[in-house]
Amino acid sequence: MKAEMSTKERIEAAIFKKDADRLPFWPKLTETYRRFQPRGASATLEQMHVYIGSDVARYTEIGTLRRPVDGIEVKKERTAAEEIVTYAIDKRVLIERNMLTQEAGDSHPVEYPIKSLEDIMAMTKYYETGNHYVAPSCLEAHRRHLEAAPDGFFFASMSATPVMELAQYKAGLENFVYFLADYPDEMETLIAAMHRDYLQRLELTCQSMQTDYILATENTSSTMISPWMFTKYCRPHLTDAANLVKSYGKHLILHMCGKLKAFLPDIAKIPAVAMEAFTSATVGDTGIKDGFTMLPGKGIIGGTCASTWLLGEKEIIDRILFDIAEAGGTRGLYLTSAGVMPFSASVEKIKAVRSAVLSGLKN
Predict the structure, then answer these.
(1) What number is the average pLDDT over the span 69-77?
(2) For the CA atoms of 67, 69, 74, 75, what is the dihedral angle to 10 degrees?
(3) Strand runs (DSSP E) across 90-146, as ranges?
(4) 128-164: per-residue pLDDT in tens?
(5) Does 1 have pLDDT greater than 60?
(6) Is 313 in contact with 274 (CB distance < 8 Å)?
(7) In degrees, to the nearest 5, what angle opens at C-alpha 84 toward C-alphas 78 and 89?
(8) How much is the pLDDT for 38?
(9) So what's the pLDDT on residue 302?
(10) Nearest alpha-carbon partner for 336 in 361, 299, 363, 362
(11) Looking at the predicted structure, is the pLDDT value of residue 102 above 80?
């Protein structure tokens, strides 16, 4: 072990369950978080992280583009209030609409494109005819990301696998479950087409990326889908993804947040190197000890949750130190806020918690 590691070395030591010079810590701050802070008008996110002493994992991506297909047209529109995607597939029009919220700095779906059996069939054709490529502008954006922090730890983020894409964006959770029951054969065909499309885009990412880690962005939670669905669909899809990534000499990190304990036996079988956004109660239902015991071959990225950071400073410190002691130590832990840091947790509070936890671990 080195006397002092770089952020990248420290994070990698945690992911691969090796000794580090200290516990790495990453509070997930966003531009929206910054705007809500008193110093947000003058301090950048980078300056906030330097002040706190964060070990930041940085996102990058290889954006893939879809080649035109006869009979299929996709139109995207964006305003200050919403974003709309219109799919025209063999003259059938499907609308996907997301509402933008300034406070959250994000969007949420308010209209799903798949509403009927005919829509299932149309969207199946859309995915079956997918033919993607990486544009030079995408590669240039990726290169700029890496050059901005040459010693940083990066992962390239990927979109969700078919079940999560359908539940979140394409059909909605309720209709997705109904469609599985009402049109099982057609849904199996659609899911298979979506998976082939996903792997095609993932392989392009592996071929083009200049970093060693890919983040599979699944917002899976047992409050959204059942363990049966995860076992039948998500686990084999993510296993295929991890094996493809591994074939290119890269590493897959799983992002899943929320209540995951029911999925951990399946997640343990996926050949990923780490589990990201490992979320404690009350937002989640997993502790650091659960990660160490139920996912023994994986690094744990997380360990707290948004509601933890709403507590008083001393209570946060005591809770983190207790959870670490219960788990038997910090090897294999990259401590983060799991989800996005709530706006009411000031940078001063975050810095104080970090310092006290690191001090407490030395004693």
Answers:
(1) 95
(2) 80
(3) 92-101, 106-111, 132-134
(4) 999 999 999 889 999 999 999 988 999 998 989 999 9
(5) no
(6) no
(7) 135
(8) 85
(9) 97
(10) 299
(11) no
Residue 104 has pLDDT above 90, yes or no: no
Q: How far is CA 56 from the centre of its chain?
A: 15
Give the pair of three-digit tokens for residue 252: 């897959």
Q: What is the dihedral of CA 295, 296, 302, 307, to 10 degrees?
A: 60
For the record, the structure tokens of 111 come out as 């209209």
What CA–CA distance (Å, rounded) separates 220 from 168? Answer: 10
pLDDT, mean of residues 205-221: 91
| CA separation for the pair 49, 126 (Å, rounded) | 42
3-state secondary structure of 202: helix
Instruction: Tell me the percentage of the chain whose pLDDT exceeds 90.
Output: 85
Which two tokens mark 58?
């940085």
Structure tokens at 253: 């990190």
| Cα 208 from Cα 61, distance rounded (Å) | 10
297 C-beta neighbours (distance < 10 Å), count: 13
| Strand ranges inside the chain, DSSP E | 25-26, 57-60, 64-66, 72-78, 82-89, 92-101, 106-111, 132-134, 153-158, 213-217, 251-255, 274-278, 299-303, 333-336
**Distance between CA atoms of 246 and 159, rounded to whole angstroms?**
18
How many C-alpha atoms does 3 have within 13 Å on its Cβ side? Answer: 0
Structure-token pair, residue 343: 């706006």
Q: What mean pLDDT do residues 63-89 have?
A: 94
Burial of 229 (0-12, 13-18, 19+ CB in 10 A): buried
Nearest to 234 by CA among 300, 291, 168, 279: 168
Whether the ω angle into residue 282 lies within 30 degrees of 0, i.e. cis, is: yes
Query: Between vectors from CA 282 to CA 264 and to CA 16, what angle results, nearest 5°?
Result: 40
